[in-house]
Design a protein that fits this description.
Length: 147
């Protein structure tokens, strides 16, 4: 029986990029200035000499706030290993076959045992005929040499 290999199919493996938008809530803090003014209910005199508009001071208050610094980093999240394997399965093939049956004509000193004819050297006639055919077949092209 002969077997042939053929291409049963192919697999292409590639990759693509999927994108999505992520919304992440980040709590950020900031400072605000709070100025509270209160009416003095029991007005009291200022001590010392007071000149209106003199000695005006400016007070500077620094306010801080936080801001989000967004950065992206690529991470390996999955690895793919690709290979192939050979799987052997049994398949029943139905085909009509034949065999050549040797017709033996008994002539001369032939002893018949069972249903097979044997020559005096102990080999049956069919075995000797097969050997003769093998000797006549050219091993290079498989054809019978008809000398």
């Amino acid at each position: 029986m002969n077997k042939d290999r053929y291409v049963a199919g192919q697999v292409q493996i590639g990759k693509h990029v999927e994108t999505r938008t992520e919304n992440v809530t980040v709590p950020l803090e900031r400072e605000e200035i709070v100025i509270e003014r209160h009416v003095v209910s029991d007005a009291r005199p200022v001590s010392g000499n007071v000149t209106l508009g003199a000695g005006t001071e400016t007070v500077e208050v620094t306010l801080e706030a936080e801001r989000a610094n967004v950065s992206k980093q690529a991470y390996v999240t999955e690895e793919v290993e690709i290979g192939k394997r050979t799987v052997t399965e049994q398949q029943t093939v139905t085909e009509t076959i034949g065999r050549e049956v040797l017709d033996v004509n008994q002539n001369g000193q032939v002893a018949v045992q069972g249903t097979e004819a044997h020559l005096h050297d102990g080999r049956n006639v069919a075995e000797r005929a097969v050997d003769a055919v093998k000797d006549a077949v050219d091993p290079l092209d498989g054809k019978i040499d008809r000398r």
